[in-house]
Amino acid sequence: MKNSVEYLSETRAKLSVEILAEEFGPDYDKAAKTLAKQVNIPGFRPGHAPRRILEAKIGKGYIIEQAINDSMDKYYQQAVAEADLYPMSRPEIAIDEVPEMKGKGDKTALKFTVEVDVRPEIILADPATMTVKVSGMEVSDEDVTAELDALRERFATLTNVDRAAKKGDHVNIDMVATIDGQEIDDVSGVSYKIGDGNMLQGQDEALTGAKAGDEVEFTAELMGGAHEGEDANVKITVNSVKEAELPEADDDFAQLASEFDTIDELKEDLRTKAVKNKGDEAVAEGTQKLSDALLAAVEFPLPQSVVDEEVKNHLEREGKEENDPHSEEIRVEVEEGLRTQLLLDAYAKAFNVDVAQDELIEFLISQAQMYGMDPNQFIQAAAQTNQIGAFAGEIARNKALIAALRLAKVEDSKGNTVDVTTILGDAPEGETVPDFSAQEKKVKVSAKAEKKAEKAEKKPAEKVEKAEDLAGDFDPSAHKVDEVVAYLEAANDAEKARVLEAEKAGKARKTIMALA
């Protein structure tokens, strides 16, 4: 198989593929055998008619067409692999020529072209040149006391109290949320500890001071569900208020709550765990900050058709139209997520990151526990929806960030160096450190494609010259963003003000409003 690649842009490629008749032969034979079993030819059992009889009966063209349909995906996958391309959209395939299958010496070929959106080439920043600041790593006596108190709370006794609720109390509540008078959610008999702050913003303040039998009401922004981001009126009925009585922190408690005989031994173990927790927190904070720094250090384009498709799917899942006012916010989120994913995928490849099967299974089990599902059912569902690859990709990206963090300089809030390797251990076997200084840009957009792009960019300007005479009639909602921007650049102040007002009343696209 011969193939060549032409870059139409940094995110779109055109593959030209050629498979000679001789190479296409096995696929032609396979298609012929399949069709022979489906065709009834007098005098022959199904599938046993000679090739020339079958060809005379249904025609070579029909067999060739069947063979192309059956083998096209195989040829496409082989071509993108040989060209080192990473497709990101559905391919657009055009068949230019088909083989004649004339037998020995046939020089004809199957020729087709493929246009597809691809991952952009990214010149990666060297993590070794970056310094990441994380929170302090020191463990204080207060940290150990907090760990001990958290353990004591697990063995606390809850007692009903006839007083106003305060921070640390446990309340049993019923809750109803409404928007514009319509009930959208309700829960009953929920136990909540005042001060945890893990339900609704403003809930702790509303419950503080309430007694059993009281009703409290407040407004909160919903953090999930179909009404995420909307303000709801929340009414809570307090069923009971309970005070937690903690056991004494002594040797008896140490023996009850752990394998240790004394409270001092238990505290020492809690200190060790606190040190590990601080390390894990520092790594989590460091990877997030490093990810942001790596993103800020590079620029690369995104395939807009992929972004458009994801925005459309997002809106459809929420039951919204394509012109929904929130579509631009969704687009920003989609672009940020896609940019991060592409960058970390590139680092995963550069570091030669590998995802072992046991890592994948462990990750899937943890995800199942998070969703409260049986691990086997969760894994089966993931396999049926083709999500296993996505989970493996997420693990690889996380490992790539860890690999990058090992190279970066990590400091705590006091300027002390944090030894990431001590926290994480050595890099996995097979993981390599790339030579970031040796990177070269390989992708070159073809001159023909560049000229075509230049012509496309000039078209809006040509329209503007004619539009200057349309002052007062120009409707921004009927034009693309670049056309409106170009028109405004040529318009006088009065016309510019009129068009911007019309834009505000219509789509209110951010790029255009920036000119206000």
TrEMBL record:
The question of whether Iron is a record keyword is answered with no
Q: Where is the PPIase FKBP-type domain?
A: 168-219
Tell me one Pfam family matched here.
FKBP_C
Note the InterPro entries from the entry.
Answer: PPIase_dom_sf, PPIase_FKBP_dom, Trig_fac, Trigger_fac_C, Trigger_fac_C_sf, Trigger_fac_ribosome-bd_bac, Trigger_fac_ribosome-bd_sf, Trigger_fact/SurA_dom_sf
Which regions span the lipid bilayer?
Answer: none
UniProt-annotated location(s): Cytoplasm
Primary residence: cytoplasm
Catalytic reaction list: [protein]-peptidylproline (omega=180) = [protein]-peptidylproline (omega=0)
| Region called Disordered, residue ranges | 450-475
- The enzyme's E.C. designation: 5.2.1.8
Bias (Basic and acidic residues) = 450-469
Q: Could you cite one Gene Ontology molecular function of this protein?
A: peptidyl-prolyl cis-trans isomerase activity
Which UniProt keywords are given for this protein, alphabetically ordered? Answer: Cell cycle, Cell division, Chaperone, Cytoplasm, Isomerase, Rotamase
PROSITE patterns per the UniProt record, alphabetical: FKBP_PPIASE
SUPFAM superfamilies tied to this protein: FKBP-like (SSF54534), Triger factor/SurA peptide-binding domain-like (SSF109998), Trigger factor ribosome-binding domain (SSF102735)
**Which purpose does this protein serve, as stated in its record?**
Involved in protein export. Acts as a chaperone by maintaining the newly synthesized protein in an open conformation. Functions as a peptidyl-prolyl cis-trans isomerase.
**Entry text on domains:** Consists of 3 domains; the N-terminus binds the ribosome, the middle domain has PPIase activity, while the C-terminus has intrinsic chaperone activity on its own.
Q: What is stated as this protein's family in its record?
A: Belongs to the FKBP-type PPIase family. Tig subfamily.
> Can you name this protein?
Trigger factor
| Provenance organism | Arcanobacterium phocisimile
